């Protein structure tokens, strides 16, 4: 039984708490959030203790592992402190908004970086993971091109965007990890962005972007992003290989289809957002974290993958600004 | 070059004329219809001669083959006269409304019955024919169960229904042939009917029926019929075998799909009726007729298949009336 | 918090135990099975007490509700005893193999029959339930025809078949309930059966059947059953209404599709059997049981629905034997 | 009746001849190809005259319109001569391999450029055209992002590639027109290319490219190309708008699907190449050419669209070489 503390009692903290509660080998023992109302509410739900100061988490001898869901600007400090305290660590993405800050994290961790897991949940989505496995099994031969379509149902509030580090570090960061998951290290990136949302344009950020990546082995990928999508949370993937193609459609709640005089085969709307769409992924991710924590084996994805994704985000932002390809 | 006459310048006559015109080895030479307006219009469209009396067709030395699309009550006489005149013959279904009349046709034709083709166009539909071929190729092992869904977009006028011989001889007749195409001879049939259309009920006919068939080899089939269908012409097939299933969806005009906030993957409406849905089938059917006429080989389906389907229609009508299974 | 005992620690007992454990308002407190090994294993899994004699369950003051998953021949006795002891009851299907025995249950229960829930889990399948709801909402107008395709992946052992009451009471019973769920009371039923499995034929039972039903309101339904299916657990539904059609496809584990030189859009195999396919349904069913038990409101489906389905199974078996439609 | 001559009796000449023959208002009267064998064969097929010298076509008083399917290096000369001779003209793409040459064509044509139709057949594909129409009808609101996936089944021979002008002018040229068809004029383009085919790499050309385009109105598009595709001719489109998405799947020959123990819903392979995939499009394109030729109205797409696509191809090649975005 692994005893787990969660730092950050927001939306993502609730997701992780639910996964911990459902896992037979895990036990939630502590919830930490500086906003007492949040900490109290989440901890009460599972009948566990709460605290306001993360230091109490690091000091608690009954805590074996820490899940970090605090605001991004605290990630590095919380990771470093938790590792120093001998805890197993899984942190939400991104590792940091600033490349230098992320670099400091990797440097200070040293070899321990291999054991800090990064919460890139999409690697654990059953559809994406199945495609990855089947490519590994050789089903479509050498992977040659990857198309990642990733659109959020609705733009976040302008104030969120302001502090988010921009679309590449906040939203595309997941897709950078997806591309790296399938294609490995990236050699070159180019990007173009535009706006359909004036509030986001006013923040100096893009709300629609296209990113093109070339891996060190010469394979191509494209990422299609939009901050809003009329039909919900558009999360699809196409892996094109020498011998065939594997693709993942959007998910729907049921398998119902409808035919009328104006259309046929209409399914229900796609699942609307990440809590619902990736619920399985979060659950499986936690299982993987617990397995590697138990076994003491390297985490995958690790904080090094978080750093690599952040470097990509930074390079992409530069490319979108200058119009020139950026080599990594 | 085979020189073809068409008897009956109605809707189906137009379909056949178009197919003849498009076939490189066939030439339309004569159109016959007692309604001069119809005969004139169709013949003018292809710049050929017309006549009002079928006897002229049988007497015409320049006619090699006759396509019979006259009203059902004339089919047997036209078939017999055309064969007697030495013409190759393809007749529209059903062979007759009355079993005795059809029996007379088969008896008088004798061995020549093998060479008279019956216009069961659905055997030539590319999707249904592909399923048949793949079953023959052993793709799904022994065929065990067949589901035929066949619904018309809208009920015909009450006066048409009155003279149609009832739903089984008029509409289900196609599906009986489809079942025989896949399962061979039928040993037993049961049926139940109901009404959602009062005008048809007033004619003493059903407008929705379910038919269950067992082949002489013990294989099962079910036919689902409705005289009306809100989403168009519903023509589907499922062949369930020991090793898998092959099924044919409805067709749509394009491959466009749509996603909105309330649904996803919605295709355009299905093709609305038989002229459009089975255009390819009519064209391929004509090609087969010409090939067998040229080669002098047995027609398939032949007028014997037309007779077998009519026997099934009669037995099914009896079952629907009495509630008891009818053995054949 | 409702305290629940489970009678029968077999496969279905495990399903219910998992659902009880996951439900926030339910607590598993007792497991009963005459085979101590089974009782011990299931109870140990959830750290609860076990017993060998059902009477202990009925006598236990700490038990609020009983889920009956014992062999069918004990269902009626267990239902009656549990209700007499003041417990809330949900029983697995079928209510009994013998109509008279089921009748006795209904009669002895009297008004209490309304509060005994029958485990027809498929009513709670999200896809089927969505179709039901959307029909109620008027989306496809008056429901006119229902097609239920229900095939098991592989035939049970001959000894199971021998004691199962035959395919209609054992397997089709679910589909009878599905038809009643959508069409209400049934006026007339006809059936035809056949065999592709010699071991089942040797037991005097069918392994493939087609059932045709007409509701008291004149609506038609067909049920297509097979004891084996090469592609897994085939569970589909088509509801055809005056204004359109709603249908439920089979479920797959992921949304992955594959294109190769020989095919395109191929999804992964369908979910293989009921524990997996209907896991959500069992969970939702339990929630409904708890809700109605808490509220003291009538159960739906109730043991009366179980009785009605059994009557249908008996009538269908008669029809399959005699070839004649059976009126109810 | 419009009397048509075809210059170029190669593969595409045959496609156009078939479309002309099938069109009720068009008549093929002359075929021209310097290779007598080709000219003879195609002209014989339709029983018409042939010539070896294009000048004979321009001089023939019985020719109303000319379809130019000669090698690209002759397009401009043939267009100019045909127009000068008072013929209606439709030319295959691309207008030329050299921008200056294309510019000369536009300049010399002057206002007549509006009446020369460019053979961008994909605009007439029923699926793509339906999406375009439905966007115009406002079905998905303002179009925001376009994804064009366009992969050929197999790479052409190295010698063809050598004279093709490179992938952008030879293959992507169609996709540039598609993007312009949907998004209008393009302001900026970036591209990245790679090789999986060594023979093409040896020619100094790419065989896989990703192109990103931004329209003058700030809308984004991406083009995904590959010279080879294991599953056939991959031709898809996704139009993402403010209110929804319209997409076009690949086409298959039939609507058959297959379920086995390892997969479900598998369709037959996609149509393999352009002659088959775009047969309808070529037919509809010819109809449009004849309609505008008859009416004397501007052609769409015109040679100006051909010029715009070529400019895009040139700019994209520059971007792929330098890694920098190119403004137009």
UniProtKB/TrEMBL annotation, chains A, B, C, D:
Residues 2-120 form the Gfo/Idh/MocA-like oxidoreductase N-terminal domain. It comes from the Bacteria. It is an enzyme of class 1 (oxidoreductase). GO terms for biological process: NADPH regeneration. GO terms for cellular component: cytoplasm. Keywords: Oxidoreductase. The keyword Oxidoreductase applies. GO terms for molecular function: inositol 2-dehydrogenase (NAD+) activity; nucleotide binding. Its EC number is 1.1.1.18. PANTHER family: BINDING ROSSMANN FOLD OXIDOREDUCTASE, PUTATIVE (AFU_ORTHOLOGUE AFUA_2G10240)-RELATED, NAD(P)-BINDING ROSSMANN-FOLD SUPERFAMILY PROTEIN-RELATED. Belongs to the Gfo/Idh/MocA family. This is Inositol 2-dehydrogenase.
């Amino acid at each position: 039984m692994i005893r787990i503390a969660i730092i950050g009692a927001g939306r993502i903290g609730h997701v992780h708490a639910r996964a911990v509660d459902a896992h037979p080998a895990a036990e939630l023992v502590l919830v930490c959030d500086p906003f007492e109302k949040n900490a109290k509410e989440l901890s009460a739900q599972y009948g566990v203790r709460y605290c306001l100061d993360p230091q109490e988490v690091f000091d608690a001898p009954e805590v074996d592992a820490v899940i970090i869901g605090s605001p991004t600007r605290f990630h590095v400090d919380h990771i470093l402190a938790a590792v120093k305290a001998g805890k197993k660590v899984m942190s939400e993405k991104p590792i940091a908004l600033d490349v230098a800050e992320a670099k400091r994290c990797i440097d200070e961790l040293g070899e321990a970086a291999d054991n800090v897991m990064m919460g890139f949940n999409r690697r654990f989505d059953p559809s994406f993971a199945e495609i990855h496995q089947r490519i590994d099994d050789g089903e479509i031969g050498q992977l040659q091109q990857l198309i990642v379509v990733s659109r959020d149902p609705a733009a976040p509030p302008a104030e969120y965007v302001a502090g988010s580090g921009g679309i590449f570090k906040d939203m595309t960061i997941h897709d950078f990890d997806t591309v790296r998951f399938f294609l490995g290290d990236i050699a070159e990136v180019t990007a173009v962005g535009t706006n359909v949302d004036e509030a986001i344009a006013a923040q100096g950020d893009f709300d629609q972007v296209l990113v093109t990546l070339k891996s060190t082995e010469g394979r191509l990928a494209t990422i299609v992003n939009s901050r809003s999508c009329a039909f919900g949370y558009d999360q699809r993937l196409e892996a094109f290989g020498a011998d065939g193609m594997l693709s993942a459609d959007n998910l729907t709640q049921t398998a119902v289809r409808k035919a009328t005089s104006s259309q046929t085969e209409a399914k229900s709307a796609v699942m609307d957002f990440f809590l619902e769409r990736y619920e399985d992924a979060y659950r499986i991710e936690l299982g993987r974290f617990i397995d590697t924590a138990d076994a003491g084996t390297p985490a995958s994805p690790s904080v090094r993958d978080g750093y690599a994704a952040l470097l990509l985000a930074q390079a992409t932002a530069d490319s979108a600004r200058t119009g020139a390809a950026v080599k990594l």
